[in-house]
Amino acid sequence: MLFGISVSDTCTSDATLVVTSTDTSAGTCPIVVTRTYTITDACGNFTTATQTINVQDTTAPVVTGTITPATAEGCSATAAPAAVTTVTALEGMGLTIADACTSDATLVVTSADTSVGTCPIVVTRTYTITDACGNFTTATQTINVQDTTAPVVTGTITPATAEGCSATAAPAAVTTVAALEGMGLTIADACTSDATLVVTSTDTSAGTCPIVVTRTYTITDACGNFTTATQTINVQDTTAPVFLGNMPSDLVLECSDLIPTVPTLIAADNCSIATVVFDEQRVDGSCANNYELFRTWTATDACGNETSYTQIIDVQDTTGPVFVETLPEDAYANCDGIPVAPTLTAIDNCGTATVTYTETEVEGDCSNRYSLIREWTATDECGNQTTHTQTVYLACYVTVYNAVSANGDGSNDVFLIEGIECYPNNTIEIYNRWGVLVYESNGYNNTDKSFKGYSEGRTTISPNQLLPTGTYFYILKYEYDLYGTNQQNIEKAGYLYLQSN
Fold this sequence. Notes:
48% strand, rod-shaped, five-stranded mixed beta sheet, mainly beta, 2% helix
């Protein structure tokens, strides 16, 4: 039997039949081998038989080892490095590859990627190593595509100020990139959009006046990468304290008035306890008793904010002195009996006073009447004055000048009776040495009624004739009065001398 074939020969036994064979082959996968057997008997007679043999490569390439995992920076699976395409490259990545029939150079390397996750994106790359007969083996590589780049922040946040007493007065923190960019920053991230960047913040504070709040903003992308930016916020207490209650008003006082005691003022502050300090300054005026008191209360809080209030007390000496003695009243007197001016003294409500005296003569309505204006002026240290005036009304007796020079030279041309015009109720008689009346007049006045040396008497022998030089005798009668009081009938008689040549 030859592989299931019955062989027999009439002459040659099976054992001596000679079997030879030749092979031919074609194809690759499989390789088809055609084997021709020749069965030859002892006499050289032969017969052939054919066998087909399929030589198959069914063993996949053998891969040992593991591909080293890889990492890549990026935002998506496309950031994974390019797949290799050769066995040599794969072997450089940690594999050992061998195939029984196909050389490394002709092994076919293909790959396919799948990805899951976000941070990182895990790319699973499956390499397929296929031999010439389609037998294949796979090897897997893990590639982590990582976003490890923090958001990029440029610029600085504009510092801020706030009015308040504690760090809580700082303005609320913003929560969006857009708001931060409105405060002076430029923010960009390679993988995360501005809208999905997460903005958080924390505050720390130090100091008192101001309270410096340091606000740290953290800008975080989708993979947890973050960058910080700092803002400085000064929380200031700039509000000054406020005085409580009624404030003392300005005053104008007389120097003799009692200066009010200094009141105690209190103040309240929005953030702290206010302390009040008092100060008083005196500013002297033009005299010792004129001055101003500037009373200033200053309320200060813990941050040095101040409120001041000033009360001005204006102390004045406006009251004149007061005379001590009884003040002399107006008086009437004869010129020969002028009353003595008294010495007056004065006192002042705030200091001393001096008294000055003046006397002024004022002409009256005629030559023998006049007045004395007496004025006492009391002056204090600030120039305030009190004045008292006394008027002494004086009337004088007439004075007779007993010489007449009737020569027309303008000197002693008239028998002068000084002051007679003040007493119009008068009579004058002039007699010569023989007792003859040579001149008489009622209402003698030294002008149109006056004796000029001419005979004008009722009994004269030669009227309007110049009388001779000589001594004559006069009799003067007049009604004296002291400004309508103390009326007296006065008679004066005497000699007068007439010079007529």
